[in-house]
Structure formats: structure tokens, C-alpha cells
Design a protein that fits this description.
Elements (H helix, E strand, L loop, with lengths): L8 H13 L9 H4 L70 H9 L21
């Protein structure tokens, strides 16, 4: 009676299928590769604020343009991030205007806010707006 100690082809393929199906886990890396200087930078973040009922713009808009602006009272909590902050104002989104499709200003404005497109107004399931920045 001969006894084989090798793995069968079926066992190897079954194990390979399991290995391919597993996601890459940080625990599988070596300690030296975790300390490597080529680690990726954290992702950049962007925030969009939508205020449907409006704001008093004088409390949100800096008085001066440029790098050395002083933050208005409403933006004072963002003082630690001022060097990374852009305050954009005076922007008009024409796609949020009625353009002949009737009432629904608030819903239309919210739909156009991050898409920049005039939404297709419909009573059915074929509503569409466009690709969004988020």
C-alpha cells in the first residue's frame, strides 16, 4: 500500500480559490512595509453647504478678498482652517431658475445645487438631473 503525502490538484485549486476570494488585509503585511515612507496621503475633503431659505450674506461673506481676509462672525469657528478655506460668493446658478417649467423652486434649486443642471420635471419615474460633484 503506497501512501502519498503530496497535495492533490483538487485541493490546490480549492485553496487557490479561497485565497483569491479573500480581500487584502493590513494584517497580512509585514511591519517594515507599514513603516515605509511611501504611505499615501490622507484624502482631501470638500464640504458643500446648502441653505434653502437663505442667509444674511453680510454675516457669511468676508469684507476683503485675497489670502489675508478676516473671517466674519458666522465663519469664526473655522479660524483654525482659514489657510485652507475658500469662501465663494456672488455665484448664480441659472439651472435652478424655473426656465418655463412652473413652480417648485426649492426642489429645483436643491436638484441643481451639486449638478449644475436643470432637472427634468416629471410625474413619472424618469426623473433625471445629471452627474453630481459628490
Amino acid at each position: 500500500m503506497s501512501k502519498t503525502t503530496g497535495l492533490s490538484r483538487r485541493a490546490v485549486l480549492r485553496g487557490l480559490g479561497t485565497a483569491v476570494a479573500l480581500p487584502w488585509l493590513e494584517a497580512m503585511t509585514t511591519v517594515s512595509s507599514l513603516a515605509a515612507p511611501s504611505r499615501p496621503r490622507p484624502p482631501r475633503r470638500m464640504a458643500f453647504f446648502y441653505v434653502p431659505n437663505g442667509v444674511n450674506m453680510s454675516t457669511w461673506t468676508p469684507a476683503a478678498m485675497g489670502v489675508d481676509f478676516s473671517l466674519p462672525a458666522a465663519l469664526d469657528p473655522l479660524k483654525p482652517f482659514q489657510k485652507d478655506l475658500l469662501v465663494l460668493s456672488g455665484l448664480t446658478l441659472n439651472a435652478a431658475r424655473p426656465l418655463g417649467d412652473g413652480p417648485g423652486d426649492h426642489a429645483r434649486a436643491m436638484s441643481a445645487f451639486l449638478t449644475g443642471r436643470h432637472p427634468k420635471k416629471t410625474h413619472g419615474a424618469d426623473i433625471s438631473v445629471g452627474i453630481s460633484v459628490d
